[in-house]
Amino acid sequence: MSRNGPRLLHGAPIAAEIRGQVKDDVAAFKRRYGFAPTLAIVMVGRDAPSAVYLQQILRSCRNVGISGRLVEIPGRVSAAALRSRIAQLNDDPLVAGIIVQMPLPRRIPLSAVTDTLDPAKDIDGIHPLNAGRLELGHEGFVPTTAQAAVQLLKSSGISLEGRRAVVVGRSNVVGKPAAILLLRENTTVTVCHSRTRDLAAETRRAEVLVVAVGKPGLITGSMLKRRAVVIDVGINVVGDRIVGDVDFETAKDVVSAITPVPGGVGPVTNALLLTHLMRAAAAQAQTADTPRRGLRQARP
């Protein structure tokens, strides 16, 4: 922490570097196979914040030459119909990757998505097979938000080995995978959750703190270790503002570095999605039974 406040860990420069590499990869893929891979984005129902986020992903796709296809499904869809639509995308040879925007309508079980996705096209790492690969340290797709949190630390030159890390949140898409990825970096990890008895006692021990619970201002400055590094994954709408899970105003006087919200983890997450898509596209093209050269883009 300097006299002027903490170091702000902006995601935009890291994301720009990632997108630059992806753009080169897309150009090489087009030269070899004659078409651009497609990212299918499934949105069930109409949710304004989700729609804005998905448009950002589609714009990122266009900027690097990837074909983005928004698949809008009515909110009243049945679980069986949703499975059927995902299965169609699994079978589409032009679709290299699929993501499904959360949350789903409450009456649709998450398994309708996670168990139906082709693991080879599950670029956000939510299929049980990819989750198991992550746990065992095998090659597979990692949930991008969790990966972005750790990538932001590493790309910012934050030392991780041997440090005490605390992850607040135990979701399958951020908290748990972030803890596993931090373990890979040889940190000592504690995972906290809604039943943790004394959350502040745990967070005050953290040299590196990752927060991903979806509760605005949950973590205040009094709950932080001096000179800690904080990765705030939370995205919450409060009035006309977007805020994180960490109360920035009280945290900034304590920590040495912190991600802004918005502008921290989010840009890196979106860029890593594109990286995952190109990995999936390359693997599918190499193992395809029939030549793909000359296939024309299908219209969204």
Sequence-ordered SSE layout with sheet pairings:
Elements: E1 7-8, H1 12-33, E2 38-44, H2 48-64, E3 67-73, H3 79-91, E4 95-100, H4 111-114, H5 128-136, H6 144-155, E5 164-168, H7 175-184, E6 188-192, H8 199-203, E7 208-211, E8 229-232, E9 236-238, E10 241-243, H9 248-251, E11 257-258, H10 265-287
Parallel strand pairs: 1-11, 2-3, 2-4, 5-6, 5-7, 7-8, 8-11
Antiparallel strand pairs: 9-10
What features would you describe in this structure?
The chain has 300 residues and is α/β, with parallel strands linked by helices. The chain folds into two domains: 34-124 and 266-287, Leucine Dehydrogenase, chain A, domain 1 (Rossmann fold), CATH 3.40.50; 143-265, Rossmann fold, CATH 3.40.50. The protein is built from ten helices and eleven strands. The protein has helices at 12-33, 48-64, 79-91, 111-114, 128-136, 144-155, 175-184, 199-203, 248-251, 265-287; strands spanning 7-8, 38-44, 67-73, 95-100, 164-168, 188-192, 208-211, 229-232, 236-238, 241-243, 257-258. It has a six-stranded parallel sheet. Strand 9 (236-238) and strand 10 (241-243) form a beta hairpin. Helix 6 crosses helix 10 (265-287). The longest helix has 23 residues, at 265-287. The termini are far apart. The relative contact order is 0.17.
